[in-house]
Design a protein that fits this description.
The complex is a heterodimer. Chain A is α/β, with parallel strands linked by helices. Chain A is built from ten helices and ten strands. Classes of the chains: A alpha/beta, B mainly alpha. Chains A and B meet through strand 6 of A and helix 9, helix 10 and helix 13 of B. Bound molecules: adenosine-5'-triphosphate and magnesium ion.
C-alpha cells in the first residue's frame, strides 16, 4: 500500500482486514486461508464459485461465527462479536424480515434504543431512499420479492452502518429487479459514502458494482486475485456493460474462476 | 411430533377466500351445513319414540325444555340464567379456564426455554415424553391426595393433562423461527427481551395457537372427568346425579349445554386467533 500525501487518511486505511482466516467444519476444510483488505468508503465484491465459503466468511466478518484460525479486524479492532456499525442484508429476504411486522416496524425494530422522533425520521429516510415511502403500512408478504429486499436494505440503512455486508442480496429476484437494485446500491453508496462488501457468484454483477473485486478459488478457498475496478461513476446498465474495460475485467474474472475450477477438475458450466 | 403433524392442517385458518374457493353458492353451503345436524335430530327423535330406548332417551324438544328449566330463568336480576348455571356451569367453566390458563402459562414458558436452548431440550426431553404418556385422568386420585379437595386438584389435573400439546407445539414453533431471523436479530443487536417478545413468541405463535386449540377441547373433557367423583358441583357432577335420579331429560340437557359450550369456546378462540395471526394467514396464502 503506497501512501500518497494528497489522499485523505480514511481512504488509505482499510476498513476491514481479513488476516489468514480459515474455517474447518469437522474435517471439512472449507476456507483455507483468506487474507484481504476491504477499503473504506468503497464497494468491494467477493466473487467465487458456489460452496467456496463466501457466506461462511460473511458470518465470520459479522461476528456470527468464529474463524478456526486467523482473525478479522474492523476499524483496527479484532472482531469477536457483532461489530458496532455493521449491518447485513441476507440473501433470503423472506426469512430475514419479520412477517408479523409491517414494513415500517421491520425497519424501526433494530432502533429500539433510538429516541422515538429520531427513529421515525431515520425510518422515513431509509424507506424514502429505497423508494418505498408510500408502502410503509404493508406487510412484507404483501410485497414482491424485489420490494422485500428493498425493505431489508432500508432496515440496514436505518441503522446507519459504517459497513454494509450483503450476502448474494439479489440472487432471488428477477433480472430487471436485480438491475434496479444494483443501481439503487450504487446510488446509495455514493450518497452515504459507506463501506460495502457484497458477495455474489454473478460475474457481471461483481464487475458492475465493484470498486474492488476479491476473487476466491474453489474450496478450500484462498484469494485467487484482487482486482481494482476503475470504471467511471455513475455507472449505467447499458453503457458501463458495453465499456471495453468492463468486458475486459469481466473476461478476466471469468477466466480466473474457470481456471480454478479446471485445476480442481470440477465440471461447471 | 405426531401431535403437531395432526394439527398442522387444522391450524390453517379457514379464510373467506378459502370458503369461497369451494365453489358453492350460499344456499347450497348453508343447506349442506344443516344436513348433518338435522339428521342427528331425526335419529334422536326416532330413538326417543322407539319402544326399547324411548324410556332412556327423551325427545329433543323435551331435552331443550329441560335446558330451559335448569339453566335459564325469567329473572332479569339473574340475567335470565337458571340455578344450574350458577351452581354447576360457572364453576365448571371457571375450573376449565383456570386449568387451561395455567397450562398455557407453563406450556409456553417452558416451551420457549426448551426451544431456545437445545441442551435443555435434550436434558428434559425424556421427562416431557414421560409426562405426556401418563394417562392423566387415571391420576385424579393422586391429585386429590396431593392437593386436597375442592377446586385445586381439578384445576391442576386439567392443567397437567392439557399442557402437553401446548408445550410440544411451542418447542416446535420456537425452533421453526429460523436461523436467519435469529442472525438478523444478532446483527442488529436486538436486546434479548425484545427477541423473546417480538421475534420468538410471534414466530412460534401459529404453532402455539394450534396447541392451545387442542388443549382447549381436551380441557373440557378433563373438566367433566374430574367432576365425576368427589364433587358436589359442576357439569360432570350433574351428569352423574341426573342419571342417578333417572332424570334423563336433565342428563340430555347437560349434554346439550356441553356441546354448545364447546362450539362457543371454539368460536371465541377462532376470533382471537384470526386477529392475532392475521399476518400468518397472509404468509400461508402467499406460499400456497
Ligand atoms: N454450518 C455448517 N456446517 C458444516 N459445513 C458447513 C456449514 N456452513 C458451511 N459449510 C460448508 O462450508 C463450505 C462453504 O459454505 P458456504 O455456504 O460458506 O459457501 P458459499 O460460497 O456461500 O456458497 P453459495 O455460493 O452456494 O452460497 C461448504 O462446503 C459447506 O458445505
Ligand atoms: Mg452462500
Amino acid at each position: 500500500m503506497t501512501d500518497t500525501t494528497t489522499a485523505p487518511t480514511t481512504q488509505t486505511i482499510p476498513e476491514l482486514q481479513l488476516d489468514g482466516v480459515s474455517k474447518t467444519y469437522g474435517t471439512n476444510l472449507a476456507v483455507r486461508s483468506i487474507t484481504a483488505d476491504i477499503p473504506a468508503h468503497k464497494i468491494s465484491v467477493m466473487v467465487g464459485p458456489s460452496g467456496c465459503g463466501k457466506s461462511t466468511l460473511l458470518r465470520i466478518i459479522s461476528g456470527l461465527d468464529q474463524p478456526t484460525d486467523g482473525s478479522v479486524s474492523f476499524e483496527g479492532k479484532t472482531v469477536t462479536g457483532v461489530p458496532e456499525g455493521l449491518a447485513m442484508v441476507f440473501q433470503d429476504y423472506s426469512r430475514s424480515l419479520y412477517p408479523w411486522m409491517r414494513v415500517d416496524k421491520n425497519v424501526a425494530f433494530p432502533l429500539s434504543k433510538v429516541p422515538k422522533a429520531e427513529r421515525e425520521r431515520r425510518v422515513a429516510e431509509a424507506l424514502e431512499a429505497v423508494g418505498l415511502k408510500d408502502r410503509t403500512h404493508l406487510y412484507p408478504w404483501q410485497m414482491s420479492g424485489g420490494m422485500q429486499q428493498r425493505v431489508a436494505i432500508a432496515r440496514a440503512l436505518a441503522s446507519q452502518p459504517k459497513l454494509l455486508v450483503m450476502d448474494e442480496p439479489y440472487a432471488s429476484v428477477d433480472a430487471q429487479t436485480r438491475a434496479d437494485l444494483e443501481d439503487l446500491l450504487l446510488r446509495i453508496q455514493r450518497e452515504l459514502g459507506i463501506t460495502v462488501l457484497v458477495v455474489t457468484h454473478d460475474i457481471d454483477e461483481s464487475v458492475y458494482l465493484a470498486d474492488h473485486i476479491i476473487v476466491l478459488s474453489t474450496p478450500p478457498s484462498i484469494v485467487a486475485e484482487t482486482i481494482d475496478v476503475d470504471l467511471p461513476h455513475p455507472r449505467d446498465q447499458v453503457t458501463t456493460k458495453a465499456d471495453p474495460r468492463f468486458v475486459e475485467i469481466r473476461g478476466h474474472v471469468a477466466s480466473l474462476l474457470r481456471h480454478k475450477e479446471l485445476q480442481t477438475g470440477e465440471d461447471r458450466p | 411430533m405426531t401431535i403437531t403433524q395432526q394439527l398442522r392442517p387444522r391450524s390453517r385458518p379457514t379464510t373467506a377466500a378459502r370458503t369461497r374457493r369451494d365453489g358453492l353458492t350460499l344456499p347450497v353451503r348453508i343447506g349442506l351445513r344443516l344436513l348433518v345436524p338435522v339428521v342427528i335430530l331425526l335419529v334422536w327423535w326416532a330413538l326417543s319414540r322407539s319402544a326399547t330406548s324411548g324410556y332412556f332417551v327423551p325427545s329433543p324438544l323435551e331435552s331443550l325444555r329441560a335446558v330451559g328449566a335448569m339453566f335459564l330463568s325469567s329473572d332479569p336480576g339473574r340475567l335470565f340464567l337458571g340455578e344450574a348455571t350458577f351452581t354447576h356451569f360457572v364453576p365448571s367453566v371457571a375450573r376449565a379456564l383456570a386449568g387451561l390458563g395455567l397450562a398455557i402459562l407453563v406450556g409456553v414458558g417452558v416451551g420457549v426455554v426448551l426451544g431456545v436452548f437445545p441442551k435443555m431440550h435434550a436434558l428434559f426431553q425424556p421427562l416431557v415424553h414421560l409426562g405426556r404418556s401418563l394417562p392423566s385422568p387415571a391420576l385424579l386420585g393422586v391429585f386429590f391426595l396431593l392437593f386436597g379437595i375442592g377446586d385445586s386438584p381439578k384445576i391442576f389435573l386439567i392443567a397437567f393433562s392439557v399442557v402437553w400439546p401446548i408445550l410440544f407445539n411451542t418447542i416446535d414453533g420456537v425452533m421453526s423461527v429460523g436461523e436467519v431471523r435469529s442472525q438478523a436479530a444478532a446483527v442488529y443487536r436486538i436486546p434479548t427481551r425484545l427477541v423473546l417478545t417480538h421475534i420468538v413468541l410471534p414466530g412460534a405463535s401459529p404453532k402455539i395457537f394450534a396447541g392451545i386449540r387442542t388443549a382447549m377441547s381436551m380441557s373440557l373433557i378433563i373438566m367433566i372427568i374430574s367432576e365425576l367423583q368427589k364433587s358436589d358441583n359442576g357439569l360432570g357432577y350433574l351428569l352423574v346425579s341426573t342419571q342417578r335420579d333417572f332424570d334423563y331429560p336433565g342428563f340430555f340437557a347437560v349434554l346439550i349445554v356441553l356441546a354448545v359450550l364447546g362450539v362457543v369456546m371454539n368460536f371465541i378462540f377462532l376470533q382471537i386467533e384470526r386477529r392475532v395471526l392475521s399476518w400468518h394467514r397472509g404468509v400461508t396464502a402467499q406460499n400456497d
